[in-house]
Design a protein that fits this description.
CATH class of the largest domain: Alpha Beta
CATH superfamily of the largest domain: Phosphoenolpyruvate Carboxykinase, domain 1
Largest sheet: 9 strands, mixed
Number of domains: 3
Number of helices: 15
CATH topology of the largest domain: Phosphoenolpyruvate Carboxykinase, domain 1
Number of strands: 30
Structural class: alpha/beta
Strand content: 15-25%
Radius of gyration: 23 Å
Distance between the termini: 54 Å
């Protein structure tokens, strides 16, 4: 049976030439020599990913074996693949890849806490994918590469096309993970985000066995040492809101919460670039420089300046850069137990308040619900926002049943008494197409108030539909914006939209019959 070390051996036995652990300049030279991407005016490389400009969750499979069969939450998200099909696919991909030399090898780690870090070996067909891995994961010191032994090996061959009839998959694209043997395969898609999320999926399966609660969230640290978490799906503001000049960044997307505190899984950031501006997001703007990987960002053919408003390729434009490209980053990227937890949602209906304080039961209800709007471009086929419930704010990445992650959160909340808030970074004044996106400065002001503790004891009004506790006044924010109904020109239309969304919450939450009556009652009142 193949092991993480066997993929490298199998490739070399088939005649593949492996180029290992190149520096950033050497990788960029390879990218340019091979014509894989273009150089931007700031020195970033800009690659175009073709047909697949976002994740393809329908093409993701997990191996169903004696260990995973009883543990994994099988279904539409976690589709089963037999051991035999996986092994046959692995052999096909190694044979295919050996004829496309050289291949590029990155060796590094996932997990900033040395107690829990997992050694990774990522073997890629494209030099720019190896640069992506180099910038996104934790880079080893030269001494750590001596005798390096991976726990997880990922083979990424975009030009390999799966055969659905032969391979037991859905299309030419395949993302297949053997969580027991800690092996991963990616073929048929050039979208580099599949590399990042394959590693995340493995961690979400392995780390709970070691007492770590894995989280799809960003994290930062205040000057007083207070840690904050920002949960949310892609496009809700995790990267933007955690890159705060008044706080130190721990990480922008994936973290673990152990008995030691919070630690970043990664060594870099993967920021959305759509409509990026220097004034609005200066930290991210300045991070797009030599060594950064841009995905599907359109460059001016003459000046090579990036046009972040050009969405002709996709709305899901991205930048991958190492953490130390952010000026106020915390290194190593670990923090204490969080004092404030924010659940970010981009509500396309325009009915949820910009911020509301949650009880413990409400926090678990909204964590399990994972409501937001699926934003254009993050997944193939999504061209405009649509309502989406994604358990634990990341259903595509959770191999275990959602209740296992919710129970981990509940225990941490009880142990450390963190205050939870629901923050709507979506629409006000009406639904998508009628209203407008909440002003980023207003959202930042609300979050700063929460982080300072200003909202702990302020008077609140209870939303009559959702039961949320909405502050009646926040310094520096207009009172009217706090009550979403007041921002609509038609109150009756707001009431109908709120009731419709509440009904969607109830329908979705029926998937969790095992939760306590107290958590069920913490959802919408009507």
């Amino acid at each position: 049976m193949p092991t993480p070390k066997d993929i490298r051996v199998g490739l070399t036995e088939r005649g593949a030439r492996l180029i290992e652990n190149l520096s950033v300049p050497a990788l960029i030279e390879e990218v340019m020599r091979r014509g894989e991407a273009r150089l931007s005016a700031t020195g970033a490389i800009s690659a175009v990913t073709g047909k697949y400009t976002g994740r393809s969750p329908g093409d993701k499979f997990l191996v169903d074996d004696s260990e995973t069969h009883a543990r994994v939450d099988w279904g539409k998200t976690n589709q089963p693949l037999s051991v035999q099909k996986f092994d046959a696919l692995l052999l096909e991909m190694m044979t295919f890849a050996a004829g496309r030399e050289p291949l590029f090898v990155f060796e590094g780690y996932a997990g900033a806490d040395p107690q829990f870090r997992i050694p990774l070996r990522i073997i890629t067909q494209y030099a720019w994918h190896s640069l992506f891995a180099h910038q996104l994961f934790i880079r080893p010191t030269p001494g750590e590469l001596d005798g390096f032994s991976p726990e997880f090996t990922l083979l990424d061959i975009p030009d390999f096309q799966a055969n659905p009839k032969r391979d037991g998959v859905r299309s030419e694209a395949v993302i297949a993970l053997d969580l027991t043997r800690q092996l991963g395969l990616i073929g048929g898609t050039q979208y580099a985000g599949e590399i990042k999320k394959s590693v995340f999926t493995l961690l979400n399966y392995r780390l709970p066995q070691r007492g770590v609660f894995p989280m799809h969230c960003s994290a930062n640290l205040g000057l007083g040492g207070d840690t904050a978490l920002f949960f949310g799906l892609s496009g809700t503001g995790k990267t933007t809101l955690s890159a705060d000049p008044e706080r130190r960044l721990i990480g922008d997307d994936e973290h673990g919460w152990s008995d030691n505190g919070v630690f970043n899984f990664e060594g870099g950031c993967y920021a959305k670039c759509v409509h990026l501006s220097q004034a609005g997001e200066p930290e991210i703007w300045d991070a797009i420089r030599y060594g950064t990987v841009l995905e599907n960002v359109v460059l001016d053919p003459q000046t090579r300046l990036a046009d972040y408003d050009d969405t002709s390729l996709t709305e899901n434009t991205r930048a991958a850069y190492p953490l130390d490209f952010i000026p106020n980053v915390l290194m190593p990227s670990v923090g204490g137990h969080p004092k404030t937890i924010l659940f970010l949602t981009a509500d396309a209906f325009g009915v949820l308040p910009p911020i509301s304080r949650l009880t413990r039961d409400q926090a678990l209800y909204h964590f399990l619900s994972g409501y937001t709007s699926k934003l254009a471009g993050t997944e193939r086929g999504v061209t405009e926002p649509e309502p989406n419930f994604s358990a634990c704010f990341g259903a595509p990445f959770w191999p275990l049943p959602p209740m296992e992650y919710a129970e981990m959160l509940g225990r941490r909340l009880e142990e450390h008494s963190a205050t939870c808030y629901l923050v709507n970074t979506g629409w006000v004044g009406g639904p998508y197409g009628v209203g407008h996106r909440i002003d980023l400065n207003a959202t930042r002001a609300l979050i700063h108030a929460a982080l300072r503790g200003d909202l702990q004891n302020v008077p609140t009004a209870t939303d009559p539909v959702f039961g949320l506790h909405i502050p009646v006044r926040v310094s520096g924010v207009p009172d009217a914006i706090l009550q979403p109904r007041a921002t609509w020109s038609d109150g009756d239309a707001y009431d109908a939209a709120a009731q419709a969304l509440a009904a969607r919450f109830h329908t979705n939450f029926a998937r969790f019959p095992e939760v306590s009556d107290a958590i069920k009652a913490a959802g919408p009142l009507n």
